[in-house]
Design brief:
Strand content of chain A: 15-25%
Helix content of chain A: 25-40%
Largest sheet of chain B: 8 strands, mixed
Distance between the termini of chain B: 18 Å
Number of strands of chain B: 8
Strand content of chain B: 15-25%
Number of helices of chain B: 9
Radius of gyration of chain B: 18 Å
Number of helices of chain A: 11
Strand order of the largest sheet of chain B: 3-2-4-5-1-6-8-7
Order of helices and strands of chain B: EHHHEHHHEHEEEHHEE
Oligomer: heterodimer
Chain lengths: 392, 254
């Protein structure tokens, strides 16, 4: 094979805030304990299910950003605080104008819009002070990330539903390759809201019990909330962003192609981008939602693209499906695995579905890891696979 | 970063069925709904107005460029997303059982248009949907140029937005707008290159009057210059936008 293996770009810092904890250390300790953390949905949810809720209140935004304050913005602020020093160092090293922003979200602060609709007056007017562009639309996310990070380079918000934050790694890679920036803040956030809880319920996909991806006893998904960020730089120390593959299913708006063609194309594109072979991938953090259709098609696509070797987990049984934040959240789990050599059990997977042709990890494992892949698939058939490598 | 070349453009807005009509400045009142012919069958019936709007501009630009719609990479931009659908869902949740319809839900994501178009054309290539504040107009062009740099042979860049509707905003006369550019790395036609941010005065009364603060209308000076064959430096921002990062396009004709 004549492909050139790419060195990729170092990820010099990453952070995660989700149901397992309000900082990265707490999240990773929670993952190692593996205890159930999913909890009942927000008050007023007409639905029997459990959710991945961030476990405690978080500080409000500073006064200068008060009009952008929302639970989603607080998740963002909390996750950015976890990489504050590295962000400052990157601004210092490269110049703030050379630090770009590519972040993702699906519904952003839609919970604020939901409450505002409940407070409409007799003429149907929303409460004074509500502005969709600050609350409910991802524009507010961009403003908050820009202000809190101090990054002054190019900025985009990717909004491709559940692949949103995964795809931000693709933009980072292209921007660095093109030489227009020297560092990119990637990641994203989505908080719990009735729109997504009731929306997934309308599709008949929500499980009453904690989700059990890849299990013979799976019953569907749980929704979670999260924020996660990573700093990808032109040079430095850390696990490496080696390749990103993006594809479309061209099949259905809200159901994956049962043959997994789009999923396979995304994984193959990530391998090609990195110049590595599928058989060399050690670990996969699967999209693994816990629906019958996703698990079957993803397992087939993993087998076809990577062969039987990689240890496959879904971490959605721990934190729920964090939608637009899933790519960033699961990237943090993969980056932690590359640094520690420890991978969690695929939560709730035992007894594994015997029809899946992949190695689902029913127990936590310790193994040297060189290459690990993270998958995110979304409505509209939007797929992304991100390949990470161990530090050099 | 290497420059890109505009191989085709597309535009749709009520009264203007294409870019030439817009540039002539004479609205045709019979133009009320985008054709969006590529969305055939059930996909067309279920598609949202924003999706039909975006699909029409995509189709025009790709056909003008002689590109295969099943193979072209695409970058879709919408600042306000499916806001009409979002309002309908927010309203539904406050009534009766408070349940949502599955079609409304999957039609509420920002990548609804790219999803429908990929299904209609069988395109399994990369597509992304971007949003954000006023800077997204230039940010999306940057993303498209970087995709060309990364090896895509052509990229369709599609901007589409509807004005915010009540109750999100006061009802007014703003029109929806979609503008598309089919870009290639192969030298031909109009060359676009992103340049250092700087401000230039542009005459823009026409777009302000018709589209108000709709961010995507910041693409119109570029579209008009390409159609007219008029080189120059064109800022991708509305007057008084005040964003942190303003991109300009240097347009040259080969």
């Amino acid at each position: 094979m004549s492909r050139s293996v790419r060195r990729g770009y170092p990820i010099t810092a990453f952070s995660a805030v989700n149901a397992l904890g309000t900082n990265t250390r707490e999240v990773m300790e929670g993952l190692r304990r593996g205890e159930p953390v999913l909890s009942p949905p927000p008050e007023g949810t007409p639905l029997a299910t459990v959710c991945g809720r961030v476990p405690r209140p978080l500080p409000a935004l500073p006064d200068a950003l008060a009009e952008y304050d929302s639970w989603n913005s607080r998740l963002v602020q909390q996750a950015l605080a976890g990489i504050r020093e590295e962000l400052a160092a990157a601004r210092e090293r490269w110049g703030a104008g050379r630090v770009g922003i590519a972040v993702g979200s699906s519904t952003a602060a839609m919970d604020v819009a939901e409450r505002a609709f409940g407070q409409r007056d007799a003429e149907g007017r929303l409460p004074a002070g509500f502005d969709l562009l600050r609350h409910g639309a991802p524009e507010g996310l961009q403003t908050v990330v820009r202000a809190l990070s101090g990054a002054e380079g190019p900025a985009i918000v990717v909004s491709t539903a559940c692949s949103s934050s995964g795809k931000t790694f693709g933009s980072a890679r292209r921007w660095l390759d093109a030489g227009i920036v020297d560092a990119v803040l990637v990641g994203g956030a989505d908080c719990l809201c009735q729109t997504t809880l009731r929306g997934f319920a309308s599709l008949g996909l929500v499980s009453e019990e904690p989700a059990r991806p890849f299990s013979a006893e799976r019953r569907g998904i749980n929704i979670g909330e999260a924020a996660g960020f990573a700093l990808v730089e032109r040079s430095g120390e850390g696990p490496r962003l080696l390749g990103v593959g993006e594809s479309g299913d061209a099949h259905h708006m809200s159901a994956p192609d049962p043959e997994g063609r789009g999923a396979r194309l995304a994984m193959e594109a990530a391998l090609r981008d990195a110049g590595v072979r599928g058989a060399d991938v050690d670990h996969v953090n699967a999209h693994g939602t816990g629906t019958l259709l996703n698990d079957a098609m993803e397992a087939r696509a993993i087998r076809e693209a990577l062969g039987p070797r990689p240890s496959v987990v879904s971490t959605k049984g721990y934190v729920g499906h964090t939608l637009g934040a899933a790519g960033a959240t699961e990237a943090a789990f993969v980056l932690d695995a590359l640094l520690s050599g420890w991978t969690p059990a695929s939560a709730g997977a035992a007894p594994a579905d015997p029809d899946l042709p992949i190695d689902v990890a029913l127990e936590a494992r310790s193994q040297p890891l060189r290459l690990a892949l993270s998958n995110s698939f979304a409505f509209g058939g939007s797929n992304v696979s991100v390949l990470f490598g161990a530090p050099e | 970063m290497r420059p890109a070349y505009v191989r085709g453009v597309g535009l749709w807005s009520p009264g203007h069925a294409d870019a030439d009509s817009w540039c002539r400045g004479e609205p045709d009142e019979s133009v009320r709904e985008p054709g969006a012919a590529l969305l055939a069958g059930p996909g067309r019936r279920r598609a949202t107005p924003l999706t039909r709007l975006a699909a029409e501009a995509f189709q025009q630009a790709v056909e003008a460029a002689g590109c295969d719609p099943a193979a072209v990479a695409s970058v879709w931009v919408t600042a306000h997303g499916e806001n009409e659908n979002a309002a309908a869902m927010l309203d539904m949740m406050g009534r009766g059982s408070g349940k949502l319809s599955p079609t409304r839900f999957h039609n509420s994501v920002y990548n609804t248009a790219s999803g429908y178009v990929s299904i209609a054309t069988g395109n399994r290539g990369p597509a992304t949907t971007l949003t954000g504040g006023p800077e997204i107009v230039g940010g999306a062009l940057l993303e498209a140029l970087c995709q060309l740099e990364a090896g895509a042979s052509e990229v369709a860049l599609v901007y589409a937005d509807e004005p915010l509707r009540p109750p999100f905003a006061a009802a007014d006369v703003q029109a929806p707008l979609a503008v598309a550019f089919c870009l290639s790395g192969r030298p031909t036609g109009a060359r676009v290159q992103l340049s250092d941010p700087r401000r230039e005065e542009v005459a823009a009364a026409k777009r302000r009057e018709r589209f108000g603060p709709l961010y995507v209308s910041a693409t119109l000076p570029l579209l008009e210059a390409v159609v007219a064959g008029r080189p120059g430096t064109i800022p991708l921002e509305l007057e008084g936008g005040g964003s942190t990062r303003i991109w300009c396009v240097d347009l040259e004709l080969l």
